[in-house]
Amino acid sequence: MKVLYKNQLIDREQAQVIDIEDRGYQFGDGVYEVIRVYNGHTFTLKEHLTRLFESAKKIKLTIPYKKKEITALVFQLIQANQLTEGTVYLQITRGNQSPRQHDFHLSQQSESILTGSTNPKAVNRAQLQQGVKATLIPDTRWLHCDIKSLNLLVNLLANAQAHEQGATEGIFHRDEIVTEGSHSNVFIVKNKQVITHPANHLILNGITRQVILAQCAATGIQLEEREFTRKELLEADEVFFTSTSTEGQGITEIDGQIIGDGQVGPLTKQIQQLVFQEINKQCGKIYV
Question: N or C terminus of the chain with fewer C-beta within 10 Å?
């Protein structure tokens, strides 16, 4: 298996060249992206790289490569590992700093480190049809959730709690306001209108979320970006969540309360089909 290190592909066994004093390890000082691959083609790669550079800018991290260079490296990585369906993980940290210290201005001579790897994991298509359970979890994260940061400990704990409770996803809320999932964006449907939290500092503006907003606008599906409450969530006709790794999945039960009729709802299914069509358009036929 090949992995990406800086601007070269190396064998996975050689990846020990990454320094133990990399600020990504010691401070979580870096950003990342996960890109879905179908039929050996990337889905929404341009949008992912745009967000990668935006996240890096927000933490004052310089990426020493142009987007077209990283694009070429991603394609090389996919080809080298013969990835047909799965994901590409890209990470960039502020680089090595010795001795360890908080002030990153003192490490301006260090080089930002780009790494990447592939994972041949397909989407769980059974869950797309059947729907999943979720649980509500207080959102105790920082106030820069719009940055796709390496700092994911609260997200990991929330996801672990969800699985411990027999759920697939944890849904964050700040007091009464629902924000997003532990690794997803959350949507509700009420009276045939789709509602999702606005893209501000309290959520990550997911790429699949962006695809859905564009598809709803193009097809006339009513969609509103606004805050909604836990009460609205539990009383919704339909609930679904979206991410690169899961596409769009219906939520049929939250903390033991059945959503709607307990099945993946009709508008959720319609939106799933719109996402499938965009995947087929960009990557070749995957979904019928």
Answer: C
Task: Give the chain's domains with CATH numbers.
Answer: 2-119 (3.30.470.10), 125-283 (3.20.10.10)
Task: Encode pLDDT of 64-84 as tens digits.
Answer: 999 999 999 999 999 999 999
Is residue 247 among the annotated active site residues?
Answer: no
**pLDDT tens for residues 187-225?**
999 999 999 999 999 999 999 999 999 999 999 999 999
Q: Does 32 participate in catalysis according to the annotation? A: yes
Is 180 catalytic? The answer is yes
| ∠ Cα 222 227 230 (to 5°) | 105
Catalytic residue from among 169, 180, 238, 247: 180
In angstroms, the CA 14 to CA 226 distance is 48
Q: Which of 52, 136, 202, 204 is catalytic?
A: 204
Residue type for position 209: R
Q: Read off the pTM.
A: 0.95
Contacts of 194 (CB under 8 A, 6+ apart): 187, 188, 216, 221, 222, 223, 224, 267, 271
**What gap in Å lies between CA 202 and CA 179, rounded to an integer?**
7
